[in-house]
Design brief:
By secondary structure, the protein is α+β, with helices and mostly antiparallel strands. Helices cover 42% and strands 20% of the residues. The longest helix has 44 residues. About 3% of the residues have low confidence.
Length: 618
């Protein structure tokens, strides 16, 4: 729309943008385009003076008019105009002289430089975007051509193959990759494949794309071979993969990467199972080696005999108890003096049980140094303490599936009894140096040569441990209380000893048998076996000759004989009881037990309390 007298329409016809027709004689605006009206914000622009709209020095505008008059046309960017309320209009003025019915006039075209700069920026952005699309289309065309040329090969390959461009967008995916990942071509093409299949590690940690070896292939132009990572399927399940990421070029331009991968989930699982099996085999090998060592030790130990021999009521009662309890899973506590056959009873129970195919693991409490008891019982791992150079199962663990025989349970230090009870009740053991619990399933037999009640009262044996073990008690009577068992025992030991020596079995005279039966046998069956073997060695002329002490004389042990703590404790208890009997139960005074022992009465009172002795004992 033209804001002008119709006589001037022809001068503005075809004008583009804000344009004015100005009378050079009067400086009056003769005509204006609608764009000029909007630029100056004045609908009554026509008929007003133009010079008042020049914000710059009018001298610059006069110079510009002179140049137009001289050249016929000219342009300048030195002149700023006042337009609307936004402030000065930075513009480019293009002017030329036209002749009207009034005379010469200036046809002035105004170009807003600010708007023009914005359009230039938009144009540049559009060009850049357009070139990006063109580049994308070019790369996509390259990959499409690559895929088209190699489609048969790609789809025939057993490995998964896919391509990504320099922006990490998927360009092609072969059939094997789709089958392994569960994603279709439509799901992946043009998408950021890292965010779809490689976004997290197996432990749940986020896997940033800048750490991804695939992205590094086309960012740093390097081939990356990865042996164990995970891709994520469409159903959110991980698969273990190994892959090779290789940068690819179009001419000299890096355009992306090709990834070739294979699913190694099954192989990894098989390797895991193989390692687990190897670990189990190693553990079983160690366990069998330990079991074999214990069995060899058991074989080499001189046993009294392989079967319980004797016909006394005490022996018949023990055999009956063995028959009753052996086929059950009940724990058994076997008591009796040292050498009375407690280990033999334990072996008989085990050999007549459903666990006889497994070994009976023997742990003797007093035979292990206190600092090594935990290791012997519970086992240890390498490095658990100085000298622990390899993993080693304890005897509780070795007894898994079989029987654990704890010989002389009262000799186990009190601080270890609690942990032993906890392991047996919980049916799980933890090796020294580790936290993993190992399940155990076993039967427990235990023995002690001490007075159980007295040991509990003295605080040397935990009552709860006794209650756990003493489900079925068996007491082995000393040999002196079943002298009728001595003849068959002598015959048995003599036969074994003579066979080992390669000699004829000597004759046992009636007088020698009476001598053997009158002896007190403080060492019980074990001492009898030793005496008979020694007699078999020294006997000549076909008759058994034995050297035993006078049964009425006090027992004097050879100075070279080593006594266990249990033996010493047994002697101390027996001697104290004998003194109290001799003194008629009196502790102090003339003829009192303290005087007989040569100690102060207060010392004897303290000893009686410590040993747990009462009036009932004498």
């Amino acid at each position: 729309m033209l804001h002008t007298d119709h006589s001037f329409d022809s001068f503005l016809a075809g004008a583009f943008g804000p344009t004015l027709l100005i009378d050079l004689q009067t400086d009056v605006i003769l005509a204006a385009t609608s764009e000029a009206v909007r630029t100056f914000g004045n609908s009554t622009l026509v008929g007003t003076l133009f010079a008042g709209r020049v914000k710059s020095d009018l001298a610059d505008f006069v110079v510009f008019i002179d140049e137009v008059l001289h050249r016929g046309s000219a342009w300048t960017r030195k002149i700023a105009l006042t337009a609307r309320e936004e402030g000065p209009l930075i513009c480019e003025l293009n002017g030329r002289i036209v002749t009207t019915e009034r005379g010469d006039a200036l046809l002035l075209n105004i170009t807003d430089l600010t708007t023009m700069d914005q359009r230039a920026e938009e144009t540049a952005a559009a060009q850049m975007y357009g070139s990006g699309i063109l580049e994308w289309q070019r790369v996509q065309a390259f990959f499409s051509e690559l895929e088209r040329q190699n489609q048969l090969i790609l789809n025939a390959a057993g490995e998964g193959i896919y391509g990504v461009n320099a922006e990490g967008k998927t360009t092609f995916v072969n059939r094997a990759a789709q089958e392994m990942l569960g994603w279709t071509t439509e799901d992946l093409i043009g998408r950021d494949i890292h965010q779809m299949i490689h976004h997290h590690r197996l432990n749940g940690e986020v896997y940033p794309s800048h750490e991804c070896p695939i992205y590094q292939s086309f960012r740093f132009e390097q081939v990356n071979r990865i042996e164990d990572e995970v891709f994520w399927r469409k159903d959110s399940k991980p698969i273990r993969v190994e892959y090779v990421s290789t940068p690819i070029y179009e001419g000299q331009i890096l355009v992306g990467a090709v990834v070739i991968f294979r699913d190694i989930t099954e192989r990894s699982e098989n390797e895991r199972k193989l390692h687990a099996a190897m670990d189990e085999i190693a553990a079983l090998r160690d366990r069998l080696e330990q079991e074999n060592a214990y069995l060899q030790e058991a074989i080499n130990i001189e046993r009294a005999h392989h079967d319980i021999i004797g016909q006394s009521p005490a022996i018949r009662q023990v055999i009956t108890q063995i028959e009753l309890v052996s086929r059950t899973e009940a724990n058994v506590l076997i008591t009796g003096e040292s050498g009375s056959g407690k280990s033999l009873v334990a072996s008989a129970i085990h050999n007549d049980s459903s666990r006889k195919r497994r070994p009976m693991i023997h742990f003797k409490g007093g035979a292990v140094a206190p600092e090594m008891i935990e290791s012997e019982l519970f086992g240890h791992v390498r490095g658990a303490f100085n000298g622990a150079l390899r993993d080693r199962p304890g005897k509780i663990e070795l007894a898994h599936g079989g029987t654990l025989f704890i010989d002389e349970v009262a000799d186990i230090p009190l601080e270890h009894q609690g942990r032993l009870l906890e392991a047996l009740q919980r049916r799980a053991v933890v090796r020294l140096g580790e936290d993993r619990m190992r399940a155990i399933e076993l039967r427990v037999l235990a023995s002690t040569s001490r007075n159980v009640e007295r040991e509990v009262q003295a605080g040397r044996l935990r009552q709860d441990l006794v209650l756990f073990l003493n489900v079925f008690p068996i007491h082995c009577r000393p040999l002196r209380e079943r002298v009728e068992d001595i003849p068959p025992l002598v015959a048995h030991f003599l036969k074994l000893a003579s066979k080992r020596l390669g000699r004829a079995v000597p004759v046992v005279t009636e007088g020698m048998m009476q001598k053997l039966q009158k002896y007190d046998w403080p060492g019980n069956v074990r001492e009898l076996a030793n005496v008979i073997e020694r007699g078999a060695i020294v006997s000549r002329a076909g008759k058994l000759v034995v050297d035993i002490q006078n049964p009425t004389a006090p027992v004097v042990r050879n100075s070279s004989t080593l006594l266990t703590e249990a033996d010493i404790e047994q002697i101390r208890v027996a001697n104290t009881i004998a003194c109290m009997k001799e003194a008629g139960g009196r502790v102090s005074g003339n003829g009192g037990a303290a005087a007989l022992l040569g100690v102060r009465p207060t010392t004897l009172y303290s000893r009686l309390q410590k040993l747990g002795l009462t009036d009932k004992d004498w």
